[in-house]
Amino acid sequence: MNQRDFRGAHLLILAAVPAFAGACSNSPHSSQTTGGAAGQVDTALGGAGSDGGAGVTAGAGGSATAGGTGGMSAGQAGDGAGGLTIGGASGAGGAGGAEPAGGAGGTSCKGATVCYDFEECATPAGWTVPKFPDGEGNIGAGTLLVDKEKAHGGMCALHMKDYSGNQPQHALLADLPPNFGPILWGRAWVFNTATPTSHGALIKTRYTVPNSTNVDWYEVGYESHNYKGIWHNPLPPSGLPEWELPSPLKVVVGAWTCVEWLFDSQNGTQPQAADPRIWQDGVEAIWGKGDQYDLTNGKTSPRPTTPKGSNFVGIEVGLTMYHQIDQVTNIYVDDLAFGKQRIGCNP
Description:
By secondary structure, the protein is mostly beta strands.
C-alpha cells in the first residue's frame, strides 16, 4: 500500500546523445505502433550510490511520434546488451539506429528508453536500497540480488529470494533519465514460484506533479494471486489514499511470463491521471470495482483525485509485501525495460 521516493541510477552515457527519447534493442527491428490510453502516476526521487558492475550503452534511436488516442509509434533503435541500455536521441522520420558496443542476449529493448538485462550479474550501477524512515522496502525475511539461478535471456536475472513470513520487503530504487515525460510503458519477463494472497507490490514508478512538490506513483501489484493496479498519493508522508483496482487475471506460476504496463499521468485532455493498465502475455487485466483505501474507510469510498503528472522520475523494483506471505516465494525478473511507447515482448 505505501511507497516511497526513488534513488538514482547512475547512468554512464557513451557518445553524444541529445535526449533520452529513442529506443534500444538487442536486434534492430522495424518501427512498432501501439494504441491505448493508460495508467496512473508514480515518481521516484534522487539518490546516489551504487554497487555492482554493468556497462551502460547509449545508441541512436528512431523518432517517436504521437499517433491515435494514447498511442505512439517508435522508430527502430540501436541495440546493445549487458547491463543497462539507454535509448539514444531520435532522428526525424524514424530512421534506424546505430548499434552501440555490447554483447547479444536477452529480449528486445526496441522502443525502450532504459533497459536492464542484468548480464553484468551484479546489482546495476546506481541502484540503491530504500532508506525510508519506517524501513519499507528493506525489512523482513528474504533478499534481493542478481544471480545465475534462473534467467530468461542470457546468464543472470534479478532474484527476489526466499521471501517468507510477515511483510517481507526488499526493493531497489533507480532514477529515470531527465525529462522522461508523463507517459510510461514498461515490460519485464517474470518467473514466480508462488503468488501471495495478500497485497504485494512488484514494480513502482513515480512521477512529479506540476506546481507541486508531490511525487505520486503507480504500482504493478499482486493480491489474491491475481494482478492488481494501484495509484498512490506521495510517500512520504503516507502514500494514502490509494486507488486500488482488482482484476481476475491470474498471475502465472512456474513459467516465464511477459508482463507489460502503461502508466499515463497525462491522460490527454482528461482532468486527472488515467488508471493503470497491465498485460500478461498480451492479455490485459480487466479491472473490477475500484476502491479508495486510506486505512479507515474499509475500501468503500469513491475514486480519489489522481493529479496529472509532468515527468516520471524513478522506479522501484522488488517485491514489497504489506502483509503476511503465504509460503516461501522466489520471483525472478529479467529483461526489464521502460519507455515512452510500447516495448512489446518479442525479440
